[in-house]
Automatic annotation (TrEMBL):
<dbReference type="InterPro" id="IPR011059">
    <property type="entry name" value="Metal-dep_hydrolase_composite"/>
</dbReference>
<comment type="similarity">
    <text>Belongs to the metallo-dependent hydrolases superfamily. NagA family.</text>
</comment>
<feature type="binding site">
    <location>
        <position position="137"/>
    </location>
    <ligand>
        <name>substrate</name>
    </ligand>
</feature>
<dbReference type="GO" id="GO:0008448">
    <property type="term" value="F:N-acetylglucosamine-6-phosphate deacetylase activity"/>
</dbReference>
<dbReference type="GO" id="GO:0046872">
    <property type="term" value="F:metal ion binding"/>
</dbReference>
<feature type="binding site">
    <location>
        <position position="210"/>
    </location>
    <ligand>
        <name>Zn(2+)</name>
    </ligand>
</feature>
<feature type="binding site">
    <location>
        <begin position="213"/>
        <end position="214"/>
    </location>
    <ligand>
        <name>substrate</name>
    </ligand>
</feature>
<dbReference type="InterPro" id="IPR032466">
    <property type="entry name" value="Metal_Hydrolase"/>
</dbReference>
<feature type="binding site">
    <location>
        <begin position="298"/>
        <end position="300"/>
    </location>
    <ligand>
        <name>substrate</name>
    </ligand>
</feature>
<protein>
    <submittedName>
        <fullName>N-acetylglucosamine-6-phosphate deacetylase</fullName>
    </submittedName>
</protein>
<keyword id="KW-0479">Metal-binding</keyword>
<keyword id="KW-0119">Carbohydrate metabolism</keyword>
<feature type="domain" description="Amidohydrolase-related">
    <location>
        <begin position="47"/>
        <end position="361"/>
    </location>
</feature>
<feature type="active site" description="Proton donor/acceptor">
    <location>
        <position position="265"/>
    </location>
</feature>
<feature type="binding site">
    <location>
        <position position="244"/>
    </location>
    <ligand>
        <name>substrate</name>
    </ligand>
</feature>
<dbReference type="Pfam" id="PF01979">
    <property type="entry name" value="Amidohydro_1"/>
</dbReference>
<dbReference type="GO" id="GO:0006046">
    <property type="term" value="P:N-acetylglucosamine catabolic process"/>
</dbReference>
Amino acid sequence: MMRRLEGDIVTPAGVVAGTLDIDGGRIAAITGTPIDAARAGQGGRPVLLPGFIDTHVHGGGGRDTMEGGDAIATIARRHARYGTTGFLATTMTAPLADIEAALKALGPVCRTRGAGQARLLGVHLEGPYISPDRLGAQPAHAIPATLAEVQRLNEFAPIKVLTLAPEMSGHLALIGPLRDAGIRVQIGHSAGAYEDGVAALQAGAAGFTHLFNAMTGLHHRQPGIVGAALAHGEHAELIPDLLHVHPGAIRAALRCIPGLFCVTDSTAAAGMPDGEYRLGEHRVQKCLGGVRLPDGTLAGSALTMDQALRNLVRTLGLDLVQASRRVSTVAADYLGLPDRGRLAPGAWADVVVMDAALVLQRVFVEGEDLDVVVDA
């Protein structure tokens, strides 16, 4: 059945005032007149944007990815209500048996999308192949990686992104084979030097995990992993909740890294009231917009992607087209998904409908109308 949406449509080429037709879960046509991005939503017209792509999701709606069972269905429904139409379920550092159990629960969901849910695009294996000296909020189960072990885990659910610390023994040699297997290696949770980051990029690493956080920082005589990212990185994820990274640092990254894209690093606390929640084997507290361990360490976030978009526009000053790219198109391209993260004929009909204030009104996932209204 054909469905037609009207409004100001954010396309890869700019904003078009007109109509978007959906047929069979995909975009059939976009017609209209180009307008300036600053005029989007004026006169009460809805704003249509590509659905958000989040490559770093630990949980939401009170559930955690590491729980297994039906937790991922709850997570997928909750994030869809905030405009995320595709995401990577992200693991925590844990004993391998726990990671294996979580991946076994995720595998079937990667193959079939449930009604009202965002599309699970695969897995981001954030642990356990990280530095024990840069755990951040990760539990203390870090170990070196082996290719055989990653290949075995990949049989349970498709690993699209894998975070590792390049300075750990044997890790540099793994990057090429993992890349050749279709796994994007991200540098993160690393105590390495600038030279370790550069060596990893030269070996085929694709990007950086939550840039600036849980990695060696930039000093003019010791540039660290952050320096390697800013000097040489083509892609990096960043958490724009304005708690994890100062707006000035975000602006520096935007100038330096062409493929910078936004993630939530969301926990079970996303879309939930203040209180205590699970993050892997940890208990974390949501309060004052942040999520923290008992010692005050930031532990993921309660960010949703619609708020990430608003932060890019309202605080960072990006225009709507550029902000949309950072929460949708760049991540889709990074994952090799040319039919997601953009409003264009032939792409999946993953559409977010907002008002002029960028308050979310409706969400379509692969043409399914979720008909949700969420307060900003």
